[in-house]
Every structure is written in structure tokens, then in C-alpha cells.
Amino acid sequence: MTKTGIFLCVCPSITSAIDIEKTAKSIELADTVVYSHRYLCSQRGLRFLDDCVEKEKLGRIFIVACSEDIHRHVFERAFLSKIPDIEYIDIGKMKNEKDLMDLIEERLKEDRGKTIEKEIMTRDVLVIGGGVGGVQAALDIAEEGYKVYVVESSLSVGGVMAQLDKTFPTMDCSICILGPKLVDAGKHPIIELITNADIKSITGRAGDFNVEVEIKPRYVDMGKCNGCSACVEVCPVILPNEWDMNLKSRKCIYVMFAQSVPLRYTIDKEKCIECELCKKVCKLDAINLKEEPKRRTLNVGAIVLSTGTQTFDASRKEQYGYGRVKNVVTNMEFERIICASGPTGGELLRPDGKHIKKVAFIQCVGSRDLHFHEYCSFYCCMASIKEGRLVMEHEQGAEVWIFYNDLRAFGKGFEELYVRSEREGMKFIKGLPGEIRENPVTESPIVVFEDPKSGRHSEIEFDMVVLAVALEPSEQNARLAEMLDLETDAHGFFKELDSTSMPLETSNRGVFLAGTCQGPKDIPETVAQASGAAAKVCTLFSQINRTINKF
Ligand code: SF4
Ligand code: SF4
Q1: Which ligand neighbours the alpha carbon of 286 most closely?
Q2: What is the ipTM of this complex?
Q3: Going by C-beta distance under 8 Å and a sequence separation of 6 or more, which residues neighbour residue 155?
Q4: Chain mean position to CA 78
Q5: What is the pLDDT of residues 72-124, one digit of tens each?
Q6: According to CATH, what is the number of the domain 125-309+475-481+510-542?
Q7: CB of 103 within 8 A of CB of 94?
Q8: Ligand 1: centre distance to CA 229 (Å)
Q9: Taking 90 as the threshold, does the pLDDT of residue 495 lie above it?
């Protein structure tokens, strides 16, 4: 008969309704020894456990301690060679002594047999979301030799970073940094990009997830289309280009942006008049206006969530007049206006053709606001400083005013960029404006605010006002959380297993977090977190595929 050891941790930090010392004394079971010990997970505690296992020749051990998610692996690792299948009871989940005793007795009765079992393991990985975080995670995992599927809901990988002009604090060209990563992912022999696709269901567990994916029709055969753009020339339907925030037009058959990966055309079927001019001109017979959605089932061992964020609808903050006052734009719209590949070719022009020489940036639009989101969106202070610098670089003598709550410049090189910008003439006004009105003659926005120095009511007219809008969780999060039995926080971002020590793991083993799906963050932090999630996937694969001896 295998002798069993039950070890109860007596730790002052455990908040439990159970009197552990008393319970330890009351357990009387055949072929079982019971110990209680202070700080079982400490080095001293593990040594004590080890001595007991040796002395009593234990073949089976129960650890009764706190927070299984955080501590189980400590015991597993310590006893891997002796007892590879330790049993863990999370004391925090026990209501009273009776519950604990019943559970121990029930587990002891289990006929575990003398088998050698190997966990089912698929070493393919699914990355959900193809922004910079998802692409970075995919590249890192694939470099370790594991096949990666990247499922992206839009037509191309790249995400928000592909729309930006420059990145802070280095002021590097955003697409110049991102573009090569996208191309690498597109050409990588063991990365498969599944774009224009939605996750329909996920079942299973770490090592063996089954994922149903629906691929929406593009009405252009991706296997045939070579991206020649002959179809675009003849298509008669002209539509606003969402990529350029509707500040430019596109045809009904289009690619999302010039560096799209995959660079394949798609027909906007809702707007298509089915004239078939594209079909006639396409030499590769790639057009199929009758294409239907397709389904695929993927079997993967781990999932990285990198669903990214969406932006706050600025019109909800009515006093700022977005959508009502001309030349009040969001910072994403401004990124396109100022971008060399944007609608004005990088010239700082308003839609009415006027040069933009005086710009106000309003911070915290939708963030740190009890009416909308109480959290800080993290990226926007530095994004506005960066955009302000670009204005000053584009237009000699340009005026840039930043209206802020608190200036948060806490990342590497951020404070220096802020100080340099102020020294070079950027104006920082502490306090948010009360209202933005339009001058009906000039069509310019007038910012109404209280001057913090004089305390007087002030009104200043600008050529353009840029609203630094909040980041919000992706609308995919709620659905995915339900499929994967994950928790989201009060705002809808995915909840990490432990924000201090396990920020990349989730309560579902085998599911990891990368980037802003966990909460607002900037690009460097997103990339770092994505590489961390990739490392966690590789660690999981090395742990899970070992042979487990059960008695
Ligand atoms: S659909 Fe045909 S015509 Fe249009 S880009 Fe592709 S290959 Fe060229
Ligand atoms: S069929 Fe549709 S996509 Fe093709 S040319 Fe006509 S309107 Fe454009």
C-alpha cells in the first residue's frame, strides 16, 4: 500500500475560515501521515517536505496551501523526480474543516491505478489578433519551431501601429519598424495568417484546444490574385477610405493599405454594384462574386490573446464638439493627416485646404473621467507630445498647445522628450477646456478654458483641435472570455492570473495575454509582453509534454 503524506501550510497570510493546526491534529486516516508546517513553499518548508518524503517513504502527497495557480508549480518542480504527480488543495477555496476533510477522503478513495499516462499535446499555437503584439508573439514562437496560426479579423495584419506616422520616444517611422515584421510573418514557413476571419468557438484545454474559425469571403481568390490592381482602375464605385479615417477615397475593390499583408484585393460586397468590370479585366480569373464563408477547425496546444483595443467615440464628450465643430479631430485621424502616406501626402492641411499652424491637443478624452473610463489610457500624453513635435517640424513657427490633467511621461526616454519639447516652445496648460466652439467665419475651433496662471476665462482660436481619445477593450474580448472561461476586469480587459507575478498567464492554463487586450499600454510594452507570452508558450510545451507516472 502506498503511504500518503498530507501537508498543511500554516502561513499567517492565508485568509481561511479553517483552523489549520486543529484540522491537522484531527485527521486520522490509515496509511497516512499528517504534518502542518509554517511557510511550506519556502526553502525551509520544501526541505521539511523532502525529509518527510524520505523518512516516511511517501508515495503520494497532498499539499494543502493557498493560491494553487501561484504555488503549485513550486511543489511540482521540487518533487518532480520523486513524486511527479503531487495533489494540491487550495485552502482558500474550502469553506470549513468538513469540506476539506471530505475532499481529502474523496481523493484518497480515487482508484488511480498504476498507469503511465502522457498528456495529449499539440504543439501548434493560435494567436488571436494580428497587431504588433500578435505578430511579435507569432514570430518568436515560430522561431522556436512551433507552427503558429494568426487569426485576424481585418483584411491585413498590422493593427493600429500600421496607421501611425511616427513612434515615441524615438520618433522613428512606424511602418518602417512594423513593415518588416509583417513581411517576415507573411513569409515565415510555419506561420499561417488567417485574415478576415472570426473565432466561432473554442473547446478543450492546454495541449488540446479545438478552435472553429470562420473565414469571411473576399470575393477575390487569394490563391490567384497577384495584387496587380488592374481591377481597381476599372471599378466605378468610389467610397470613403476608412483606413485614412474617411479623409481619402478608395474603390469598392481595394487593399487595406499599401503595405498590407497579405497584399490581396477584397471586394466591399455591401457597396458593390456587381457590374463585373473587375472580373472582365482580371487576367488571373481571381474574381468570384459568389464566394461563400469558409470554416476551418484548428487544433492547437496554446493560445495567445492579442485582440488589441478600440478607441473611445469622441462625440460622447459633447462639449468638445467632435462631429459637430469642424476641424476637431481624434488623434488617430491626426496621425493619418500628418502621415507621409496619408490623405494629404504628409502636408499639414485641413480638409478646406488651409495650412495647419496652430494646434491644440486635449488630453484624457474619455480617460480618467468618471462619466466614461476612470483608468488612464497610458499612451496619450506621449502620443500628443510626439504629434505636437511633428507639427513643429512640419511648419516653421507653428504653435502647439497641450491641455492636460496630469502629464504622464514615465517610460524610458519619455520625460526627456517632454522636457525637450517644452524647451523648444510647446505650451503645456494644466487643466482641460470646458468647451470647444466653432468660429462660423473661419470654420476654426475656439477652445474655451480657464487660464491656470491668471485664473481668468480664456478663449483661443486654433486651426485644428486634436482629441487624445481613450483606449477601450476590443469588442471581441467578451465573446472570447466566455469561450475560454476567462475573467475580464470591470472595464472589459482580460484579467491576468496575478497582476504582480503572473501578468501574462490567465486562469485557463494554456491561454496567455499579449498587449493591450490586458489593459492600455504603449508599443514598446506591448512588444515586450508579446515576447514574454511567446516564452510562456514554449515553457508550457516543455512542461506539459513530459511523461507523468501515476500510481
Ligand atoms: S483581382 Fe485580378 S485584377 Fe485585381 S489585383 Fe487581383 S489579379 Fe489583379
Ligand atoms: S463588380 Fe464591384 S468591385 Fe468589381 S468593378 Fe464592379 S463595383 Fe467594382
Answers
A1: 1
A2: 0.85
A3: 195, 196, 218, 255, 256, 260, 266
A4: 33
A5: 878 877 776 677 678 888 888 888 888 888 888 888 777 554 433 456 689 99
A6: 3.50.50.60
A7: yes
A8: 5
A9: yes
